[in-house]
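Changelog entry

Holo records now carry the ligand SMILES as an explicit input line rather than a separate metadata file. Below, a converted record for S-adenosylmethionine, shown in the new format.
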Amino acid sequence: MNSARVYDYLLGGKDSQDIDRDVAGQMLSSAPEIKTVAWFCRSFALKAVEMAADAGVRQFLDLGSGIPNSPNVHEVAQEIDPSARVVYVDYDPVVHAHCDALLAKPDGVTALLGDVRRPHDILDQLKNHTLIDFNEPVAITLIGVLHYVMDSEDPAGIIAAFRDQLAPGSYLAITHGSLDSAQEILQVLAGNKGTSAQVAFRSPAQTEAILAGFELLEPGVVPVQHWLRPDLPETRMVMDAAICRKP
Ligand SMILES: C[S@@+](CC[C@H](N)C(=O)[O-])C[C@H]1O[C@@H](n2cnc3c(N)ncnc32)[C@H](O)[C@@H]1O
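Structure line, unchanged by the conversion:
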């Protein structure tokens, strides 16, 4: 089982295997709206990229980028300014190979293999290859990734390591599994403890604490669909989302 391929399946992609579809099937039987939530998260990510690009940001770092699913970050960013640069990072060699083959073709687009839990390794790669100019603002997207980082792996320290390198006016957008999800869903997820699908869903307050040092944009840390439109349904699996800015 591979979380990126499970997610790809939920988004309607074609890169999953039987074992991934089995896991997705189990998740869908306990929470059929997961596909909808996945699409909310995707729409939110693209909205955040658009917002940062409209504010003048021209460098994008998609951490835990997953298997490419059009439109991608660079398609949105380069539509606003063709000179925008985008770096996709994932720790999964299979995902990285997909990104390298499918995404790193247009000018200004690169795919890197990197583990978010080792932020300095990623920052060193970015600096050594001069892919990102940290004197200029950067927009980081971490969509559906931070809940794979356990408390013992210091998610706040990871965010701080990136934050400290960012120029003022940089953006960070995240989605994060929420403890406001229905109990039966949290119970199903608890069954993944000790496997590669293990997650640490957090309360909105815990997620906000991880974003310390950034200025949270309105409406703050809220279910992802609240960022999109007022008429979208609530879901029993709640993904919180936030966009913040480095002052
Ligand atoms: C649920 S998918 C989300 C993919 C993409 N961000 C999106 O929203 O479409 C989670 C992705 O995060 C990646 N990931 C999980 N933990 C990671 C880590 N520690 N470092 C880098 N990537 C990670 C997985 O390989 C997977 O591709």
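Spot-checked after migration. Residues 3-4, 7, 41-42, 45, 64-66, 69, 90-92, 95, 115-117, 143-145, 148 surround S-adenosylmethionine (CB under 6 Å). The beta strands are 59-63, 85-90, 109-113, 139-143, 171-177, 215-216, 222-223, 239-245.
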